[in-house]
Every structure is written in C-alpha cells, then in structure tokens.
Amino acid sequence: MTEQNNPPAPTKKRRPPPRPAVVEHIERATPGVVRVTFTGDDLASFGQTKPGGHMKLFFPPAGQPVDLAPDAPRPPSRTFTPRRYDVARARLEVEFALHGEGLASNWAVGARVGDSMLLSGPGGGYPVPEGVRHIVIVADDTAIPAAGMIIEALPRDCEATLLLEISDIGDEREISPLIANRPTWLHRAPVGARPGTLLEVAVGALPPQAADTAWWVACEAAAMRRIRDRLLKERGVAPARLHTRGYWKAGDQNYPDHDYGAD
Ligand SMILES: Cc1cc2nc3c(=O)[nH]c(=O)nc-3n(C[C@H](O)[C@H](O)[C@H](O)COP(=O)(O)OP(=O)(O)OC[C@H]3O[C@@H](n4cnc5c(N)ncnc54)[C@H](O)[C@@H]3O)c2cc1C
Fold this sequence. Notes:
Number of strands: 12
Low-confidence stretches: 1-5
CATH class of the largest domain: Alpha Beta
Order of helices and strands: EEEEEEHEEHEEHEHE
CATH topology of the largest domain: Rossmann fold
Bound molecules: flavin-adenine dinucleotide
C-alpha cells in the first residue's frame, strides 16, 4: 500500500501537564464572590499573562490524591482569569463568581485552605491598543477580574468608562485601586434581570463616543452577541476597535474559552 493510501496517523498535540497547587488563602470578597489564593513551587514559573488572559483550573475529586503522571486522565476543568500573579511568592489569585450549581461555583463555596488544584496556562488576553485614550469596558461578574487587569494595563491618561453587571448591590467592590472614575454598577437582583440585559440597555444609553474609543465586552455569550451587533450596526464602531468575548453561555456547562462572537 502506498503512503498516499495509508497516511500517517495524525499526531495528537501534547499540552504540558497542568501544574499542582494548593489553596493558601480564601476570602469571601462579597456574598457572591470567593477570592482564592493558590500557591505551590510550580507556580513560580507560571508566567504573566496579557490583561484578560485565561487559564484552566482542573478540579480533582474531593479527598483523592492528585495523579500527576503525564498520561493520567485529567479531572474536569473550567476557564478562569489569573487575576493577580506574584512571581516572587509563587502566588496566584482567582475570583470565583458564585452562580448556583456548577462544578467550579460549588468548589469555591466549599474550598478549604490546603485543598489541591491543577492549573494550566496562562494564555490569550487583550492587546490593549497602543496609545488608547478612551475605553469602554462592559463586563458581568465573571469578567470583572479581567476588567481589573485591563484597567491596570491602560496608559495613565486613558479614560475608562465601566459598565459592570452584578447580582446585587452587596457584590459591588473595588475592582482596582487604579480606577479614577466610579464604575456604573448594574444590579440584576431587584428586577430579576436576565444576565446581560442590563449591560445591553446601558450600552444603548451611553452618549456618543469618540471614533477612536476602544470597546472591551465580556459576559454571557448571547448577550455579548446582541451588544456586539448593536455596537457595530447602531454606533458604527469599527471592528478593529471592538473586542468581544462570551465568558459563559446560559444552559451550557464548561463553555469554550474562545468565543469572540465574530460569527
Ligand atoms: C476567558 C474566560 C475567563 C473567565 N474568568 C472567570 C473568572 O475569573 N471568574 C469567574 O467566576 N468566571 C470566569 N469565567 C467564566 C467561567 O468559566 C464560567 O462561568 C464557568 O461556566 C463556571 O463553571 P461552573 O463549573 O461553575 O459552571 P458550569 O458547570 O460550567 O455550568 C453549570 C450551569 O451554570 C451556568 N452558568 C455558568 N456560569 C454562570 C454564571 N456566571 N451565571 C449564571 N449561570 C452560569 C451554565 O450555563 C450551566 O447551565 C471565565 C470564562 C472565560 C471564557
């Protein structure tokens, strides 16, 4: 049989094994947000990500030892933001938005100091446009950690408008000490708004923005698409100035980490 009839089996892309870490500190930042600091020798080489970059957390079954063999089956994973990375102390901070039933959300509610975790990444992220003078950041609870990273990467003279949707007033918190303007907080609770709808309305109500304004939008996937559509069609935002991302999708478990809505 010729090589053409019998092509070589495709080689499977091998990713580096995830790094083991343990929970060092847990803080209930607000009723709806658990802030967890991970540590471990392997985090010393984790690396900085671009603002808004992501990583995978692999959730080992509770009470079982973590199997670190390269070919060991990996526990189920979810996508999160490495909010603060301290290379000198090999520490990594993650903020979990509690949303009810879900592997990660449940884990965060029950997390204890010393719990094991596996992490891979970091990757991706938002290349803050060079010389940007004004940015509009539109984010729900899951994307607030990424929004904080972006704010910290902006040029000093860049003006940021922040529309942030959260569950309830008690979930308002400091996003970054570098924020000059108060964010506009949108609370779903009083009206039981569907995720993303308040962001959509708030974007529609913004006054006209300068043509060179950058837009960063991250929230529930269907809401992100509606917002993206409005920005492109109603406001004539140039696609190059617009970065949109679906962080989760209503009804879907473990939503993929690469939904930019450009379909
Ligand atoms: C690049 C990127 C970075 C992210 N960073 C963060 C982060 O730093 N912090 C963070 O909290 N999340 C973050 N997310 C979102 C997170 O990955 C999802 O919310 C994930 O689904 C949570 O996993 P889970 O196991 O709790 O729920 P899953 O098992 O994935 O889902 C269970 C059910 O809950 C629903 N669900 C999932 N998330 C929410 C929500 N927020 N509100 C209401 N219902 C929900 C699902 O639609 C599904 O019906 C990020 C996502 C991406 C793509």
